[in-house]
Amino acid sequence: MKTEPTTASQIDPGIVEEASHLLARYWAAPEDPELLAKCNVWRAAHPQHELVWQRLQTFGQKLDDIPTTIARHALLESPSTSRRATLKLFTTAAVITGAGYVLHRPHFWQQQFATYRTALGETRQIRLEDGTRVWMNTATSLDVEFTNLRRVILYSGEIFVETGKDPQARPFILVTAQGDVRPIGTQFNLRALPDKIAVGVYDGSVELLTATTKQRLRLDAGQQAQFSSSHISTPDNAGATPAWTTGFLAAERMTLSEFAQELSRYRRGKIQCTSEVAAMQLTGVFSIKDTDRALMNLTKALPIELEYRTRYWVLIKARQGKREK
């Protein structure tokens, strides 16, 4: 019998903290046989221990991709610890500190241990057991729990959902930190923003339910709204189906500063605009799979130029002089 993956909501945060402590020591002294034996005993003690260990190892390996210019003052070489180990210990210390904000930041560890995740710049599609299709945008994390209910728990990012017809007719609920979304035979988009959720409906309808005030609102096809844990905004026109599901960013009279912010979701580092060009507007369709190409296409549409200050820092500024033909 196949065992379903343990979801983040089912993992004890205490296990995450124990694993973090052990990994911090292991990264500092990987050749210590006594410590290695202790780690192995802990990993074998419970299936969740091994799951958490593997996920934290993966999280640590991703730190290798961080540019050395970022937080360099915190990552200086020390006599007793390698630069890479210092980086990992620095990060792990933030996770495991008793009062450390990372561990206690809402949904941080759930994001790291969610069953389904996408990396920065990655999009993917998953199909659930009831036939529901979920498109996941960049930097998205979610869990799926099918019992007497069909629950999708969104921790971060953005998803487009096309609900399936469940043979058992179980209710479908999409859970967020701000409240629940209950679709009725529908296609809808959900994006987690700071302290609120943006919802757009493209077929069928959904019911929104805020977490604290229990305010309800039904959105029908063609409508969109935003909701926090206590308030739902007035619905307006949802527009076209989000272009990111097909690998593009659609801009319609979007300011350059807004465009830079949106494109930054799909690449490492920062895209900035000078104040001189920030309010320029553009309309067009740009690739989110090749963000350098998208930036280059900007120079063909607007009187701007790009300055790559580093590989991870792009400045958009007014074009100087005449453009060569």
Tell me about this structure:
The structure is a single chain. The chain is an alpha+beta fold and 325 residues long. It has three domains: 8-109, no CATH class; 116-237, Jelly Rolls (Sandwich); 247-318, 3-Layer(bab) Sandwich (Phage tail protein beta-alpha-beta fold). Helices cover 27% and strands 33% of the residues. The protein contains eight helices and 17 strands. The strands form three sheets. Strands 1, 2, 3, 4, 5, 6, 7, 8, 9, 10, 11 and 12 form a twelve-stranded mixed beta sheet that branches. A three-stranded mixed beta sheet has the order 14-17-16. Strand 9 and strand 10 (216-220) form a beta hairpin. Helix 1 (13-28) packs across helix 3 (47-62) and helix 1 packs antiparallel against helix 4 (83-96). The longest helix has 16 residues, at 13-28. The termini are far apart.
How would you briefly describe this protein structure?
The chain is an alpha+beta fold. It is flat, with a radius of gyration of 23 Å. It comes from Cellvibrio mixtus.
Question: So, CATH architecture of the largest domain?
Answer: Sandwich
Give me the Rg, rounded. 23 Å
Question: Which outline best applies?
Answer: flat
> How many angstroms separate the termini?
66 Å
Instruction: Please report the number of helical segments.
Output: 8
CATH fold topology of the largest domain: Jelly Rolls
Residue stretches low in confidence (pLDDT < 50, at least 5 long) are 1-5, 63-106
Residue share in helix: 25-40%
Question: Total domains, how many?
Answer: 3
Q: Would you tell me the overall average pLDDT?
A: 82
Which structural class should the secondary elements be placed in? alpha+beta
Please identify the oligomeric state.
single chain
Secondary-structure element pattern, one letter each: HHHHHHEEEEEEEEEEEEEHEEHEE
- Class of the largest domain, according to the CATH hierarchy? Mainly Beta
Please indicate the percent range of residues in DSSP E strands (runs of 2 or more).
Answer: 25-35%
> What's the β-strand tally?
17
